Amino acid sequence: MIIGIPLINGVEYTHADIICQILGVPVVGITAINYKDNQEITNNYSTGNLPSSVGFGPVMFEGSITMTMKEVQRLSQAAPSGRIQNIPFFDIRVNYVTEGGDLVSHKLVRCRFKGRNPNSATNNTQIEETLDLNIIDIKYTA
């Protein structure tokens, strides 16, 4: 074991570093957030065995956010008709702030909740709900 070598890249981003805002308000009851974009890329073939070109299809976005039931219930109470699907389109900012003050900000653009899925099991000390998101765009340099 080598002793005394400094950290080369510093401290990594962690879940504890995340400050998440929905409708401009920081939300503290988030236990997980997942989002991704994926573009359809297809090889095109003509004569021969190998692709002759590449075609690019749509970019698709997926995401979900897991919150404590208490936090989801707060959203439901503020939503039109009590249904989170009725909350108008909103952006979600996911800010990663390290202890050194470095900031990385991602923006999930024009999101909507698809619905609720409450569930619980024995020995739960905290009930959580995973909410699927409809996302129009993701800005990784917001």
For the structure shown, list the relevant keywords.
142 residues, mainly beta, 1 helix, 50% strand
Helical run tally? 1
Strand content: over 45%
E-strand count: 8
| Termini separation | 41 Å
- SSE pattern, N- to C-terminal: EEEEHEEEE
* Broad structural category: mainly beta
C-alpha Rg (nearest Å): 20 Å
Low-confidence stretches: none
Largest sheet: 8 strands, antiparallel
Explain what the structure shows:
This protein has 142 residues and is mostly beta strands. 7% of the residues lie in helices and 50% in strands. The model has no long low-confidence stretch (mean pLDDT 88).
Q: Which helices and strands appear, and what pairs or packs with what?
A:
Blueprint: E1 18-22, E2 25-27, E3 30-45, E4 51-68, H1 69-78, E5 90-97, E6 103-113, E7 128-134, E8 137-139
Antiparallel strand pairs: 1-2, 1-5, 3-4, 4-7, 5-6, 6-7, 6-8
Summarize the structure.
This protein has one helix spanning 69-78; strands at residues 18-22, 25-27, 30-45, 51-68, 90-97, 103-113, 128-134, 137-139.
